[in-house]
Structure to design on (352 residues):
């Protein structure tokens, strides 16, 4: 029998595993073997190790494509092993590093043009992966923002959605996210970090820094909207499943999600975390936002009420709201609808 936390993880995020590229057979087989939340990280990490072993074996025999795909599966298993698992932050950090290393190996074989960027920020660094579309000189670029529990290691296929449309991508870990979260806690004013990224990217000659957009998923949707409102260099915005504010629903979040928020914000208590969540609001910011915004939302979202999307659309002058009646959180049960829509829309907006 599943304990309540394992049940909650599958109920709220299950389709996301498949949408982001995990093998569906692994999801069914390994998922069925996890009945206790305490064993979640160990079980998925072991499956990641299995894929890493397959990758190493393929490397020895000179089969690079097989190795790259196996490393990508390893990265996804390591990532989902710890995405909201914060019972032991040392083990969370170990799994984070395994995911980082596995994705770097996947890039070596699947996209050797991928570049890891470390951007100075407040005495430490922001980190992200820059990838380029084939055959496009100085392409427009999309900054991809994770949410509370996602990281750049989850975004390989999400990046491909834009790369195949001629856009470069930069998937970043910002404050409270992935490896950056170990030096910088989650913060309400994430726009400070994205502006630092824009400053850094503007110095590069291999992208068109005059044509940069941003796309965020879940809490990353809030970050994307806030970033665009605060920095006009962002020319177009996509938010998928993003909240208008985070305070009113904080107590209603799944327990494992609240625990992750507390851990990633380094709050000392539930109350301190809730007060931070209450500061995470777009109120008063969207009225002056001139850039076009696409708002994608699922009406059956269990984490963020769909009314948040309606409110964002009502306050943004140049907005387009696409509400999928059957969509869940981030519409991960409808990837064949929301991913092409986001890719085509941003390609149209950023086309020279």
């Amino acid at each position: 029998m599943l304990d309540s936390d394992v049940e909650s993880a599958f109920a709220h995020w299950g389709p996301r595993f498949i949408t982001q590229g995990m093998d569906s057979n692994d999801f069914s087989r390994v998922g069925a073997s996890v009945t206790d939340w305490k064993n979640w990280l160990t079980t998925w990490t072991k499956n990641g190790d299995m894929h890493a072993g397959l990758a190493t074996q393929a490397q020895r025999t000179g089969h690079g494509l097989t190795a790259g795909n196996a490393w990508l599966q390893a990265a996804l298993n390591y990532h989902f092993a710890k995405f909201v698992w914060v019972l032991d932050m040392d083990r969370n950090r170990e799994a984070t590093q395994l995911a980082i290393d596995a994705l770097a190996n996947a890039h070596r074989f699947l996209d050797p043009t991928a570049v890891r960027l470390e951007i100075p920020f407040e005495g430490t660094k922001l980190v992200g992966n820059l990838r380029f579309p084939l055959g496009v000189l100085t392409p427009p670029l999309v900054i991809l923002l994770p949410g509370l529990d996602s990281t750049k290691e989850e975004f390989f296929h999400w990046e491909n959605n834009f790369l195949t449309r001629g856009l470069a991508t930069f998937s970043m870990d910002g404050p409270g996210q992935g490896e950056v979260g170990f030096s910088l806690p989650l913060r309400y004013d994430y726009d400070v970090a994205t502006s630092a990224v824009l400053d850094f990217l503007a110095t590069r000659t291999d992208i068109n820094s005059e044509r940069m957009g941003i796309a965020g998923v879940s809490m990353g949707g809030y970050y994307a909207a806030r970033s665009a409102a605060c920095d006009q260099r962002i020319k177009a915005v996509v938010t998928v499943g993003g909240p208008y504010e985070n305070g009113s629903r904080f107590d209603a979040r799944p327990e494992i999600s609240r625990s992750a928020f507390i851990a990633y914000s380094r709050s000392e208590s539930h109350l301190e975390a809730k007060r931070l969540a209450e500061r995470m609001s777009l109120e008063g910011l969207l009225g002056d936002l001139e850039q076009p915004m696409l708002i994608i939302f699922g009406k059956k979202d269990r984490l963020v009420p769909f009314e948040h999307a309606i409110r964002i659309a009502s306050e943004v002058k140049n907005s387009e709201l696409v509400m999928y009646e059957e969509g869940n959180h981030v519409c991960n049960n409808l990837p064949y609808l929301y991913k092409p829509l986001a890719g085509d829309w941003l390609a149209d907006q950023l086309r020279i």
DSSP finds twelve helices and eight strands in the chain. Residues 294 and 345 are 8 Å apart (CA to CA). The radius of gyration is 19 Å.
